[in-house]
Q: What sequence folds into this?
């Protein structure tokens, strides 16, 4: 059930009864559901400038999110509309501050080749230069390789072109489009850009940030002579740019753990997923994270973000979303991990957010389907999946920061023991000492792999029920 209420307090050591039913819900999990979204200039910051020696820690952490490989990495974000391919003899257009190079495309190509991933590449729309956009697209396809490109995404959040500054000049904001810029204006320009994009690769759009244009833009782009092949949308439940503390999107841990930030987000995108699927096109949230405007310290970098991610990825998949890309950039509060290069050694500081993503991919592997669950409303969220092999996985998330819960859990089929893996931290506000199945990356990792820890207990049923204790602000994954 999708709801917008905040987590409700639960009496200390309360008990709930949960039934996992044998009825499957929705389509099977596709490969590459979880991916990352990076800005153009940060690719070499994360991976290094040498395509023959990519940052092995980044690659290992990325592979940790890809059961069976084959994910999608989105390269673009705000920098989509501030990037161009330099043209000899032509002055760089205003608003552009990053130039693509052959070395950059070589790094992107190496990343895709080494990981088995494909990339979505943003194409500059804000500059209003169709010829430059066509040149940029051709050079990207040539340099990265058509086989490594999932799609070219035209523009980034064009619904903000008339309200958010593209760049500053003499301390004054300059907008990419006039304030009267409408969805009709956008669609006319999109059609012009579409006509000059290389036919060898797919197209993605509308890459919007708000809902006001979404239905109109999505339906128009899906019914065009050359329809988009991938429908994209961006979503953050909270905004670090919001200054009014009483605003519903002002970032706090409590609001992040509220249903409005997970189930509410999924309910908002569900109609657009349906439109895409009716046109037999996949729908991807290719920019997603907890708090926009580069996140907020004390919220985005806490263990609450791990619990939010775990629940949110289940909720968006439950409404049919075909993939997500968690946005990150160096120095931001919401990045899944931060890398460091000293001498010839790379290392990474792994954020709580990554642990939540990691538990999700363990709980919902490619080919698995959601199962129906009967559970009481409240701060404990319960999700269940079944793999093609019949293996069951159940996730119980206790979003209450003060009260543990014991669940009496009944599963379909044979009453065999289940293996337990807990996702824990000292508190929902903790920024470190996160553990998954007793394992951790520690304060810093030079390998990108979890350090060994103590595995969780095996639980056996008593009178048909498994008794599962879920500590305050934590999650448990059961496997049978």
A:
């Amino acid at each position: 059930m999708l709801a917008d209420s905040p987590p409700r307090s639960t009496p200390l050591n309360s008990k709930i009864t949960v039934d996992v039913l044998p009825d499957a819900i929705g389509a099977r999990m596709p490969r590459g559901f979880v991916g990352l979204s990076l800005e153009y200039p940060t690719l070499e910051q994360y991976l290094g400038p040498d395509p023959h020696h990519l940052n092995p820690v980044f690659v290992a952490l990325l592979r940790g999110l890809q059961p069976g490989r084959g994910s999608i990495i989105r390269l673009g974000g705000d920098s989509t509309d501030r990037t161009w391919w330099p043209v000899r003899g032509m002055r760089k257009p205003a608003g552009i501050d990053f130039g693509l190079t052959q070395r950059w495309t070589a790094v992107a190509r190496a990343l895709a080749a080494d990981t088995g991933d494909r990339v979505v590449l943003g194409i500059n729309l804000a500059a209003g230069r169709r010829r430059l956009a066509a040149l940029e697209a051709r050079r990207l396809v040539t340099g990265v390789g058509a086989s490594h490109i999932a799609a070219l995404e035209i523009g980034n959040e064009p619904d903000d072109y008339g309200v958010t500054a593209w760049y500053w000049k003499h301390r004054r904001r300059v907008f990419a489009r006039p304030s009267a810029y409408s969805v009709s204006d956008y669609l006319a320009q999109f059609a012009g850009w579409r006509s000059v994009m290389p036919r060898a690769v797919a197209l993605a759009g509308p890459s919007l940030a708000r809902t006001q244009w979404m239905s109109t833009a999505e339906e128009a782009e899906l019914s065009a002579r050359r329809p988009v092949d991938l429908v994209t949308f961006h979503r953050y439940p909270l905004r670090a740019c919001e200054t009014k503390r009483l605003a519903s999107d002002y970032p706090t841990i409590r609001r992040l753990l509220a249903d409005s930030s997970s189930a509410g987000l999924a309910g908002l995108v569900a109609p657009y997923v349906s439109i895409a699927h009716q046109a037999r096109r996949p729908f991807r949230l290719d920019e997603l994270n907890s708090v926009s405007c580069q996140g907020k310290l004390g919220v985005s970098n806490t263990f609450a973000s791990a619990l939010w991610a775990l629940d949110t990825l289940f909720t968006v998949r439950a409404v049919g979303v075909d993939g997500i890309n968690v946005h990150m950039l160096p120095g931001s509060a919401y990045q899944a991990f931060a890398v460091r290069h000293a001498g010839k050694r790379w290392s990474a500081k792994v954020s709580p957010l990554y642990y939540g993503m990691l538990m999700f991919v363990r709980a919902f592997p490619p080919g698995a389907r959601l199962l129906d669950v009967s559970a009481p409303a409240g701060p404990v969220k319960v999700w269940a999946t079944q793999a093609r092999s019949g293996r069951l996985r159940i996730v119980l998330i206790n979003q209450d920061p003060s009260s543990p819960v014991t669940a009496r859990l009944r599963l379909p089929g044979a009453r065999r023991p289940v293996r337990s893996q807990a996702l824990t931290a000292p508190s929902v506000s903790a920024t470190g000492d996160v553990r998954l199945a007793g394992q951790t990356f520690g304060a810093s990792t030079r390998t990108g792999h979890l350090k060994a820890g103590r595995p969780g207990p095996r639980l056996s049923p008593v009178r048909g029920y498994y008794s599962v204790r879920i500590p305050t602000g934590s999650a448990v994954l059961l496997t049978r």
Remarks:
- Residues 95 and 167 are 5 Å apart (CA to CA).
